[in-house]
Write a structure and sequence with these properties.
Blueprint: E1 19-21, E2 26-28, E3 34-36, E4 54-59, H1 61-65, H2 70-73, E5 81-85, H3 88-98, H4 101-122, H5 133-156
Antiparallel strand pairs: 1-2, 2-3, 3-4, 4-5
Length: 165
């Protein structure tokens, strides 16, 4: 999983201070100027994304020189550059979903299930599947879940015919 590294430690504007314009394929800086993936036309068109999967959006050096926010934006460079992953649209969607109430409920429910699977792996030593294929794995997990449920029931109700200790 890739972590979000857009936060800055030098007290300059973070990437979140810049708004992305989907229609124009550009970022708008806090000063109102545009950062574009290419500020000039080449004879042979160049790919937008580099081999690393990032598109570099650059401000015009002329725009940055006359800006009153230059010290907060890019004090050590002539112009601002923002890197955007080619997968940033999906990341934005995931960030939006992660802020919903339904996601928080789902996360709590998944955590309960994951705790049960951790118990299966650690306590019941079900760390490796022995039945092959997806159906075998499904059967093995059903058997393990049934065993786990029986253990829970045994703790809740005393066995009939046995005297309480």
């Amino acid at each position: 999983m890739s972590r979000d590294k857009s936060a800055r430690k030098d007290d300059t504007f973070e990437r979140s201070a810049f708004t992305f314009d989907h229609e124009d394929d550009s970022y708008i800086c806090p000063g109102g100027k545009r950062l574009r993936p290419s500020n000039r036309n080449f004879k042979t068109p160049r790919p937008l994304a580099n081999a690393d999967g990032f598109i570099r959006y650059r401000a015009s050096q002329k725009d940055c020189q006359g800006c009153e926010l230059k010290q907060r934006c890019t004090p050590k460079m002539p112009a601002r550059k923002i890197m955007r992953s080619i997968h940033e649209g999906a990341r934005d969607m995931a960030r939006d979903i992660a802020n919903t109430e339904a996601y928080l409920v789902s996360r709590r429910q998944r955590k309960k299930v994951e705790m049960l699977f951790a118990h299966l792996k650690r306590i019941l030593k079900l760390d490796r599947l022995r039945l092959r294929g997806p159906n075998g794995a499904k059967d093995e997990f059903h058997l393990a879940a049934a065993a786990q449920n029986l253990r829970k029931l045994a703790k809740m109700q005393p066995m009939p015919g046995l005297a309480p200790a």
